[in-house]
Specification:
InterPro entries: Hamartin. Pfam families: Hamartin. One of its GO terms (biological process) is regulation of cell cycle. It comes from Rhipicephalus appendiculatus. With 233 residues, the chain is mostly helical. Helix 2 crosses helix 4 and helix 11 (171-191) crosses helix 12. The protein has helices at residues 5-11, 16-33, 37-49, 52-59, 66-77, 82-95, 107-118, 122-138, 140-146, 148-164, 171-191, 193-204, 211-221. It has a domain at 103-229. It is elongated, with a radius of gyration of 20 Å.
Length: 233
């Protein structure tokens, strides 16, 4: 089912009742027809309009449609709409719909962490990091079970980036990347201390590892620990 243009006009009207009717229509269509194109249309509409009413409809979908929504968002992360898609995901996470926990078992979470690890655009890294910061305290057990290893790798990649300070990254962006790294450190160390310390010792503490890793740890990571705990390796 595709949403007709007049339905988008109703969505943006001042009549709150119209929005509720569209929410009901979307859920009925998804339940009866199993046609996920309506979700695709809504996501595409949000990416071009940033419509808060459209966001209201998306977060009101039923739990049975969560996977289809994450499938669509995952595809959008791969294209030119990545920045807008990260914004949409962040807004969905902020609204905490009852089906949000399914994100931890979907491949989209690994992709978001991959953005932190390897995206060339600092803004995308910051956006993805903020999503991770929000998810960890909301879903600590699920996140720790499904995504902790990827989160540790993302932390190391971000620490290396902040240490290298590539010339193409503006100083203002570098400042926020360092802030993102600090928040990520606080959440990982605060919520999963034993796992995190074991990872740091294995990744940075072994003499078999490169001098570059030790430099990253010494210059960027060690200073984040309290003074009495800065010799954890």
């Amino acid at each position: 089912m595709a949403l007709p243009s007049e339905m988008f006009a109703s969505l943006e009207s001042c009549d709150g009742r119209s929005v509720e009717e569209i929410k009901q229509l979307v859920n009925e269509s998804l339940a009866n027809n199993k046609d996920t194109s309506i979700l695709s249309t809504l996501v595409d509409y949000y990416l071009t309009s940033r419509s808060q009413r459209c966001l209201d409809v998306l977060v009101a979908i039923r739990e049975t449609s969560a996977k289809d929504l994450f499938d669509k968002l995952h595809e959008c992360l791969k294209g030119k709409t990545r920045q807008c898609t990260l914004t949409l995901i962040a807004n969905i996470v902020h609204r905490q719909p009852p089906w949000l926990h399914h994100i931890t078992s979907h491949k989209i979470l690994s992709h978001i962490l991959m953005v932190v690890k390897s995206a060339p655009e600092p803004v995308h890294i910051m956006q993805a990091s903020m999503i991770i910061f929000s998810l960890m305290p909301m879903l600590p057990v699920q996140f720790g079970t499904s995504a902790l290893a990827d989160a540790f790798e993302a932390f190391s990649a971000l620490a290396a980036l902040c240490t290298r300070r590539p010339s193409h990254i503006h100083e203002s962006h570098l400042k926020y990347l360092k802030l993102s790294l600090q928040f990520l450190f606080q959440y990982l160390y605060g919520m999963y201390p034993c796992n995190f310390l074991a990872y740091l010792r294995g990744y940075y503490g072994s003499q078999d590892h490169s001098r570059e890793r030790l430099t990253v740890y010494t210059m960027t990571i060690r200073v984040s620990f309290p003074d009495h705990q800065n010799n954890v390796l």
